[in-house]
Amino acid sequence: MADMVLEKALELGKLIAESDKYKTMREKEAAMMSDVDAIMFIEKFQGLQQQHQMLRMQGNELTEEQLNEVYALEDQMMSHPLIREFAEIQENFQKFLGQVNERISEGIEGKPPESHGSCSCSSCGPSS
Is residue 83 packed enough to be buried (19+ CB in 10 Å), middle (13-18) or exposed (0-12)? Predict the structure, then answer.
């Protein structure tokens, strides 16, 4: 039985990889990573994150100025159309994966999660 579960999991992974949501996300990522300005923003942001992580690992708290530097750079990054598009598509894909996980949980528990009731708020998604 465990082998069949793993086989179905692999099949599910392949179906997800063939989905339009996944393909679109990969296309947007490739476009973003082929843009020199986008790469510059990403590398600068990652470098800043690493610096701040090192500070925190040394027991230091980030100053307000350091936090503001991160927020400002994040705003600059999100003003770049390719980065913004990728971030939006990636967020949608993560929501889709969350829905997949909810359905798996539904199969395990034998009942739909509470959020699948009559609620139609954006955090729960549309009613099933």
Answer: buried
